[in-house]
Automatic annotation (TrEMBL), chains A, B:
GO terms for molecular function: DNA-binding transcription factor activity; transcription cis-regulatory region binding. InterPro entries: HTH_LacI, LacI/GalR-like_sensor, Lambda_DNA-bd_dom_sf, Peripla_BP_I. This is LacI-family transcriptional regulator. Signal peptide: none annotated. PROSITE patterns: HTH_LACI_2. PANTHER family: LACI-RELATED TRANSCRIPTIONAL REPRESSOR, LACTOSE OPERON REPRESSOR.
Amino acid sequence: MARLAGVSRATVSYVLNNTSAVRISEPTRRRVREAAKELGYVPHAAARSLRAGHSRMVLMPAPDFPVGPLYSRFLDELQWALGRLDYTVVQYGAVGVRGDEAARAWAELRPVAVLVPGSDLGTKGVTVLKRSGARAVVTLASESVEGAHALLLDHEAVGHCAGAHLYARGRRRIGVVVPEESGLESFSAPRLAGVRRALRGTDATVVELPLAYEESAAARLAARWRELGLDAVFAYNDEYAMLLMRALQDEDIDIPGHTAVIGADDLMLGRLLRPRLSTVHVELPSGRDLAELVDRAVRNPGAATETHTVLGASMVHRESS
Amino acid sequence: MARLAGVSRATVSYVLNNTSAVRISEPTRRRVREAAKELGYVPHAAARSLRAGHSRMVLMPAPDFPVGPLYSRFLDELQWALGRLDYTVVQYGAVGVRGDEAARAWAELRPVAVLVPGSDLGTKGVTVLKRSGARAVVTLASESVEGAHALLLDHEAVGHCAGAHLYARGRRRIGVVVPEESGLESFSAPRLAGVRRALRGTDATVVELPLAYEESAAARLAARWRELGLDAVFAYNDEYAMLLMRALQDEDIDIPGHTAVIGADDLMLGRLLRPRLSTVHVELPSGRDLAELVDRAVRNPGAATETHTVLGASMVHRESS
DNA sequence: TTGAAAGCGTTACCAC
DNA sequence: GTGGTAACGCTTTCAA
């Protein structure tokens, strides 16, 4: 778009950006708008941000494993809230690119802010991003990273909640399912650690139970259940709980009589099981709050990095424990 | 980055891009590389694509409703395959922006290709994208759009498969669950239509059953089940099937004796229900094939738009039907 | 009120 | 072999 309406490029820019500093005559405005519509003109984001020296793009790495409804809703809310603040959310999809290499790839897009779920970002990566112009880097993980704002997802508290509940219900030999699927370690490890902490100094014992999300794996685990001598199991989340519970029931193991089973995430499916599944309800951070944190950080990049602990965990006791 | 290593910007460009047309002395190369590393230099994608006149960005709108494991896996595979072809996949997150307005927002990023799941793109939108430089526009929906390549997701075939199966099992009064959640119409409507087609000209009847994904809604539907007089129900997908099946069982309705229940998508949870859930297995398009389609279209934008019907549907008969 | 021109970071092209 | 220069599309400053 340029001399299409018989005016200068500057005039076009003024009209389309509603620049209030200069006054353009109504007829000219109309001519520009009509020409723009007719030509199907769309501004060039790259040129704009190149000239401006910054963009309004908030970048997140696209998750590379199936995400549940919890995260979907969180993401939706976040996108909505950031959209209201005039940011554009972009999920960068690159599989197999990790750590600092990923940070460099993100930095090429010169996002104004970067949101990183998971612990795949080091101090080095934060430096690269900041030097490339990112005014805010926020991590969502169990541990904070130097130089970045942190939303500490306290998965450890989820495990603690589960462990304390099972202990209070009189269980003493407690299994903890740890998914074998990759990409889940950063969630499962702290959940296991939380159970351990809840039971430290008591007479209860904790047994780690690696489990792949397959019927056959669950059946194998259930087959040796009696010899394991467990009276309770915290199954990482509701889906693994459903998988294991079914396998245990197929082995005629009474739930919760012989073994208590609890999950986490409070998904719909837990309410549909029989016995109804006890679960740890997890409260993800509010998308609106996170959007405001990002906006604050962008407006004031010099401020100290904030660290918030989120992910409220509360027990939902139903019938399986 | 510019005169940091005491060389010209052009030389920097040559070194970092390994341009073979010109020969740069080894010492110079080293100096440039060192300076780049020291400064944490990262190339500016916007400047690059501005200069080049095109990018390697493939844009997809981020889904604004919870997606299942099927779609997650498809997306993962697609990102991997496009990554191998040196494209960068970006999911554009904007909630509440629809149709041509969304197309214009996407066009601002000047992606080389746009992949649109769902039927939210009109001929107008395709024109805007193409005029802005997109060399390939591919839709994944039930209907094709003029000017765009189309992967026809044949949800109608899913419904047909379900209807034919239930008829063959002797069922004649067939309910079809239609989710009330928004965003799912483009999947649920063709699935319902497929059931209708399968039973057209037979003595079977089809009853549409709107259902929200909530226990209470399912309970209300189950409470009036006997008066509905249905002997089978196709529940949109496995999750709705689980919801409804549980409600029916709570009403002491025998499955499959009194009512056959089938789902779709062949999720793990169907195998864990008792009775085991019959389901329509759905084959999403191969991410690799789609990546190749995109690449072909990008290399040869003039070629006629391709239309492929994907989404193979096949019945998985278990115990609930 | 409008237009001309500079400059953002890159890279292709041409002189040196 | 190397380095200057122009141009990509846009915004902004300054001059007309």
